[in-house]
Structures are given as structure tokens and as C-alpha cells.
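name: query_chain
kind: protein
chains: 1
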Amino acid sequence: MAAVCLGLAATPALARQEAAPAAPATPNNDAVSEVVVTGFRSSLAKALNVKRQESAAVDSILAEDIGKFPDLNLSESIQRIPGVALARDGGEGRQISVRGLGPQFTRVRINGMEALTTGGGSDAGGGINRGRSFDFNVFASDLFSAITVRKTAEAATEEGSLGATVDLRTARAFDYHGFKMVGSLQGSYNDLAKSTNPRGAFMVSNTWKDDTFGALLSVAYTKRQLDDEGSSTVRWATGNAFGPGFDALPNGAGLPTTVNPAAAANNAAFHPRFPRYDNYIDDQERIGGTLSLQWRPSDKTLISFDGLYADFKGTREEQYLEAPSFSVGGACTAANVATSCGIAQTHVVSSTIDSHNTMIAGKFDNVDLRVENRFDELDTKFTQLGLNLDQQITDDIKITGLLGHSKSDHQNPVQTTVQFDQFNVQGYAYDYRNGNLPVIDYGSAQLTNPSRWVLTQIRERPQTAVNTYDVAQIDGEWANLGIFKLSGGAAFKEYKFTTTELRRSNGTSTNLEPTVPAALVALPTSSYGKIASFAGADVLIPDVQTAAGVLSLYDQTAYGGAFHLGKEPALGNNRGVTEKDAGGYVQADFDTQVGGRPLRGNFGVRYVKTQQQSQGYTYVSGAPLAITAEREYSDTLPSMNVVYEPIDNVLIRFGAAKVMSRPDLGSLTPGATISVSGAGRSVTAGNPNLDPFRAKAYDLSFEWYFQQSGLLSLAVFKKEIGSFVQTLQTNSTFTGNAFGLPDSVAIAACGATNGCSPGAQWQFTVPSNTPGGDLTGYEINYQQPLTFLPGFLKHTGVLLNYTHVKSSINYLNGAGAVVATANLTGLSPSSYNATVYYEDSKWSARASVAYRDAYLTRIPGSEAGTDADGTSETLNVDASLQYTVNDHFKLTLEGVNLTDENQDQFNDSVADRSSFFHHTGREFILGVRYTY
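structure:
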């Protein structure tokens, strides 16, 4: 296992060495000659020593590093570790993958207790997190003093991870001796948003009564205003997918009588469903705090209380200028031809179809345009309380206990979208021939004329996602049993997840969003509109906050209850899961010699029983019914880790274990639900009887500690995934569906939505256990301070790591047939990090590069005829500069995302059709740090 400690960001570590946990003394701890170093190099040396002494495969980031890397949040700090890849949303890291396994396979513990934080995001960034993936962007790095990524399993480490267990540790009072105070104040500037915002952090700690009682308090605050600009398409589809397609034959609606001779080719080609420009405007505040109280009433007893609070809140405005008629099917009639006929009325004047059957450019008549503005208020509050007891019974027997509670409460009380449409525009054209950002000509449209825009749709979708953990745990340890140390323990954990969504409702599942009271349609759009700019073009768009007052959007009694909210149209997002996990473990650690050389490690077994209860809705005789499903299952998970030192400073490390990860929360919902949103029509069924993901994991590494703070290592790893969960997808008409749902359910869900009917194409999905496959890979890690170089170069150093992963999974369709064999979704075949640093008594400078290969997010693709959906490769460059004025003051300058990397998502791995292409600008941060 290759590992490297890289520096990251938390004010509790701005100026100290003593805060890093001391590594235990072991044989050959003095094999590398001792040289006293401070600052960044000291932190690298300490973390490398922790890695060296661990029996399992572990990477650490310790105290001095935190606050040193130019990172916007915690996940961007963790991505410096080998094998860790980052997924971004809104210009900053949100979730991580480890060794090719996605975020849902990574467990996170905070101060020893499992926790989960979930937030909201744009639809392209994953939307509201209703799964097991941890949203790291809730936290500032400044709150944490140590980060550890555990890549191999031990019996003493709780179950639940296929990828890794990430341990986050906040600073504690006894990390310091006596009084300590640290503060920082920074200003950040974003060159796209043209905004300047404050960042700050503060920590104070003290101990009393001969260091037997201590208290520590830390606070961190960040404000961020962001523009997130680009284009998107939702997906690409053929004209045939929206029957009758382009250039439909005359049907009495006054359409042209001449059939387009190119209609067949145009309808067979893939076109953008919503060619559009996007503007996202984010205004965020992130505040967090920690409290540590520690009491040592005797030299054998330590009681610790840890409190952590975080509040990540903000608003987001999503503005779109789009052409919806490309994804609206259905026949034209005399009643709708002047307004919302859709693709059947659209005449393809000219088109360019490439070798991948993609209509990459075209000119069209009778195109409908739309501007929509979505406004969100978002707030995630996280609270964790933990009480720890460390009791030394005798010199050899020790007991530890933990009681804890955590809650992540995400509220999205306002998610309101208002839409204007402009019908039958002539001469509309798009062109994707020059890349992912199209050139769009709006032809005869009058984009700023209020009289041409018509209010057509109002959406209100307030939502919540709440996760809680309650934990009780006791562990015992008996040392000095010859070469062995025995340990064991028991744990009980109760996890609860609930989520809700409301929509406009009349008490049935009918989609009311396209239904707008005539009195509101008659109001001039100028009375609640504003001018926005899309790719240099001025456009009148709805102003949601003004519209809320003018249109009485939040008065549920107005206009005969037109804006009454209920759960009925969104039953799929009104659900919950409760899990009660009871388990225990025994583990033997050993330390001996073989052939006169050190051999150490551990072996043991963990047993856990899971009691699961899930709640959701299904349909009986066409009517929704709340249902609950219960089940239980158990797992026995043996593990071993062995470390052998054949020669001084060379370690051979081997680990093997059975591991498990519970199914994602959305898959466990009982019943089936129906959703209609714009042109999207889906039927989603859950499966509460899913078995967990289960695998056998193997890890072998060779590590050479060739000098102090120097490491060259190679790790190879393999996971044999035996039990897997896939979401099987079928695209078909609702009529005659395999779930046995009557057409009346689809008719109710469609409401007045154009092109929606039981005869239209619907997407049916259901999760199912399927055979897994093997995942294999390797990591190479190199770090070295270049002290052998002459002159100022002796103050430089380098950190490099590279990870390669591959897997083979058979992906099935709704009928159970294999339709593709490919990598796991979320798996990037290659990733690397590189850091070059300089540090002397006055100056410290670093430049870092993080690369992640392209990865697939869905196999097959969401749209019929596409092999996959995915995200393109990213290369992020960050840098920092620090000047030490004196023992108390330091000046800092940081640059984040210096290349203004794009977030690039695609449909079809071969055709590479752009579905989302955005950028957020560069961030520059200037500040001062003070230590007392």
C-alpha cells in the first residue's frame, strides 16, 4: 500500500508541532537517523511515521499540514492521498472515491464515531443527497487536526466499507500544553464572479490543575459567492424517441404539405434534448465550531467530550435559456399548433450529422423557446456529541467506551421554478462543431420583449433529508501476553434516514406544475421579470423572488388552492430507512521476529447483525398506499494484516479480509413510484430485500523508507466483489409495463404535461442483486525532501503518487441480459497527484496538481441507444505562498483552480455528446495568521 501525507487546512494547526498524535514506539523506530525539522517537513515526517508503524494500510494527514494547502473544504484536502479521487459540484469538492470504489462505499468516522452529512446541489452535481455518500463540503478543513484513510480492514474497525474508512479527528485540549491561541483572517476573490469574500478561523485552548483538565474551542467561517456558467443538454436523443418526430406529416393542424426528404435521417440521428445556456449563481456561508473538554482525574483515567457543529447554508439561482420542443413528442392538433405542439411541428431546414450519428449542427423553424429560473434556499446543519472513556485497569488491561449522537439535517424549504415560453421561432440554429460550448442563434425570437413570453409552468418542490446515528461502544485490551495483545469489543448502532418532498397537489398524484391559473397568465411578465445575460445575449427571465409576491406562490389558499403543497405527486421521495446494527469483534495483535527480522500484525473476526426497516409507497388498484418492509441479515468478517521487515527500512505489508457495504438507501424503498418532471417520465421501484455488497479484499505493498521523510512504495490490491447491486433499466411505453401498473396511474401523473401519455416512452428502473466482478489496481508513491541539492534547492521537496485501477462488471438490462461489460461506475482508471514545495525559516511555497481520469456514471446510458453516461477527466492546479514575519505572524497567498477547469459530463463514451459543460473561475485567497 502506497501512502503519502500531504498538507491540508485547519486553523487548530496553524503554528504547532505538538498537536500531531505521537506515533507508538516500535522496533527499528530509530533506523533512520534523527534530524530535527519543523513546519511542513515536520508534519510529513510525523505522518509517514504513523503510516510506517500501523499494521493496516493507512494514509494520514496530520496537524501542521492542515491550513497549509489551498483547499476550499475537507474533500479537497483528502484528494492529495494516493488512491483518492474527487467529485466536484459548484467548483469545489463534494464527495470522494477510493481505489475506484464510489462515494457510497466509503465510511466516515468523526472522532471515532460513524457519521453522515448530506447536502443539496445542482441536478448535474447529484442534487439532494439521499444516499450513503458523505458530503465533505459541509465542513471547512480548519476544524480538523488529523485525517486518516484506512484502506485495509481490521476486526477492530467497524464494517460498512468496500473502499476505505476515513477517520476525521478534531483538535483536543490535551493536544497542547498550557495556553494556545491561533487566528486567521483571509479574503478570497473569484475572477469569474468578480466577488471578494471573507474567510476566518479562531482557536483557543488551555489546560489547568497540572494539565488534568483542559478545554479547547475552535470556530471557522467562510462566505463564498460563485458564478457557475456554461451549457447543458440534459441528454441527447433521436427524433424517433419523441414520436412522430421532426417534420411530421400533415395532420389537419395546418402544417406544411411538403414532406422533408431528409426527415428519416434527421429522426434517426441524436440531437440535444434541451440545447441551452446556463447560469448558476451561488451565495454560500459555511460556519463550524468544535468544543473539546478533557479531564484526567488520575493517571489511569481519561474522560473526553467532543462536540462538533457545522452549518452550510446558502441560496442558488439556476437560470436557463433553452429550446424544449426538441424533447416534446405527440401529435400536433389545431388546438396546440400555435403554442406547444413540440417536435412534430419543428421543421429541419438544414442539418449536419457526424460519423457517430449525431446531429451536431442544425437550423430549424417552428421552435419553442423557454427561459426558466429555479431558486433554492439550502441549509445543512450537522451536530455531533461524543463522550469517551479511557480507563487503565492494570498495567496490561485497558477499557475504552464511547457514547455518541450525530444528526445531519438538510432543509431545502424553497425550491421554486418559474418558466416563460415563446412559441414558433423561425430560423433557430445550434452548432456543436467547435466543442462542448455551442453557438446558438435564436433566429426570429424577441428575447427581451415581455409580450412575447408567456408564463407556462410553476414548480414548488421543498425537500428534506435527515440522517441520525446513535452509537454505544465498549472495547477492551489485554497486553503483554507473550508476543500477543488481545482486544475485543461490542457495539450497537442505530441509524435513521428520512426524506420528504412536497409538490403542488390537489390530493392526487396528478402533475399540476404545467397548470397555471389564467389570471396569472394574464399578468404582464415584465411585472416579475428581470434581464439576464446568456453568452452575451440579454434575455428577459422570471425573477423568482419577485414572482413569489406578485403571484402569491407561497400562499397555499390563493387562486383556489393552486399552490397547495402535498406529497402525493412525489411519493418516491417520501421514504425512510432504519437500521439497527449489533456486533462485536475479537482481535489478536502480535509482534515478534522471524529469521531475526521484525514481524508484526493482527488477525481477528467481526460479527454484525443488521435489522432493517424501510418505508415507502406503492400503488394498489391505481391508488397510492404507504407500506413498510422489514428484514435482517448478518455478516461474519475475518481479517488479517501482516508487516515484515526483511532489511532495515524496507517493509512488506499484506492484508486480507472479507468486507461488506450496505445497499444504497434509495434502493431499499419498498413499492414503486411514478414521476413526471418536464420531459422526464420515470417509474422507479425499490427492493428492500437486497443483500449487501460483499467482497474479499487483498492488499500487498512494498515500502522503502530510504531517508528521513523519504518513501518509495508500490501497492497492489484486489477486490473480488461477489454480491453486487445494479439498477436495471428499461425504456418502453407505460401501457403494458412489467410492474403491472394501470394506464390511469400514468394519466394522473402526466396531468397537462405536453407529450406525456401512457403511449409515450417511459423509463422503468428497479435495483437487483447481480453477480459482481474483480477490481484490481496498483499505487506508486514517492516523497522526498531534496536536502542533498546545493544552495537554496536543499529546501525543496517533492510528493508524487499515481493510482491505476480496473474492474470488470457485467451490466444487465431490465430483462436480465448482459448489455455491457465495463468498469465500475465512478471508477477512474488513472489518477495522480504531484506537489513541489520549498520551505526555509521565512518562506514556504507549494504547487499541487491533481488529475482524475474520465469515469462512467451510468451503464447503459440513460437514453436509449447510448452505451454510457460519464464525466470527463479533470486536472486541477493549486498553489500557496507563505511568509513568516516573526514568531507570531504569517502572511499567506493561495490560488485555487488556477487553470479554471471545466466540469464536463457526456452521453455515450464513443460519441462523447456533451450533456453538461461548466466552469467556475479561479480563486485567490490573501490572508494573515496569528499565533500566541
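note: Residues 39-53 form the longest helix (15 residues).
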